[in-house]
């Protein structure tokens, strides 16, 4: 199959085409003609099939040469599957157990065979339903600290990191999507934008807001120019699958070398949006408990991230930056701690900027999220979105002048 020209799989052709791949056939078991195949992709870009057989199951994710959400008028290269595969292997090495296991990769067919996560559901769905998952803050805080620290010059050998930087530098088209859809389009009347009509006056106000427009471009500058570590690149609550006992991060096709704070900011932004959307999901009863839970998740995720990052700083700082010869080896532990404080403070300020912009693009840009979209009462949805937009503007523009998540979450409650 590897030598064939690319062909999109279908439910009908999948057993014949993948039955010949030993790693897949062994995992699923039984005669391929008997496999049960379903296409379940709900994302914006790719095909996702669940394959079940006599002894096992797996997921086949295949890229298409265009954006699924838009159609073949918007071409997008198949090589994003290559970056997803390489990101998954690095994430597994750096944060063991945090991503689905990979069984097979076919570059020409742009497909990855991976572990079928079941009975996991998408975290965004769970939060919309009002489920309080007990593990997500800890698991995602650890995932971010481990992948972001261990993919950087704080930890890696310079030669290895530079080789990886070169490998992922070719993920140009997916970075371009983020550069335009996240950082630019929301701040002017770009053709693919849309927003809830009741927001018109607020949208006009935000698009005329010079401080916000400058700050958003500073975040874009950082995104494009600060190749600090291998970031996931699309770490929202739709890229996390959960049960009460397990948390897995999926879908790293946007992976590239960028700023640590990008992943952290995007994830926390999606928790804040889940918070602001709760008022729209109260038909089955009050969501006061869920709102308190979400603010707690935000604080705990950040705390766990800081603690794990600090622990890795003290024990795994094996890269060229802040070399131990300058600190610990001269008995200057305090110097190392001082430098750690500077690095974490930088992540903090930038995280808030990225979070603010992520909130804006989900309400003003092309790719909206179900947290708000599922609110049927349009006026109520607009109220939730307006609070989130104001919050996003505040944290992005004032990111250097806020000191704690407690303070920010208090503001979220005031606006909500
Ligand atoms: P896209 O890049 O198109 O967004 P995703 O990787 O996010 O694709 O997958 C789309 C959907 O397919 C997910 O929302 C999830 O429902 C399902 N899915 C993806 N990977 C798995 C997996 N390993 N196990 C179970 N379901 C999965
Ligand atoms: Mg996805
Ligand atoms: Mg998705
Ligand atoms: Mg994706």
From TrEMBL:
Cytoplasm as UniProt keyword: no
Pfam families membership: APH
Keyword field contains Transmembrane: no
Record key words, sorted: ATP-binding, Kinase, Nucleotide-binding, Transferase
InterPro entries: Aminoglycoside_PTrfase, Kinase-like_dom_sf, Methylthioribose_kinase
Domain Aminoglycoside phosphotransferase: 37-292
Molecular function GO terms recorded: S-methyl-5-thioribose kinase activity
Regions annotated as coiled coil: none
EC number(s) from the headed UniProt entry: 2.7.1.100
Highest taxon in the source lineage: Bacteria
Top-level enzyme category: transferase
Family statement drawn from the similarity comment of this UniProt entry: Belongs to the methylthioribose kinase family.
Stored NCBIfam families: MTRK
Subunit structure: Homodimer.
The protein, known as: S-methyl-5-thioribose kinase
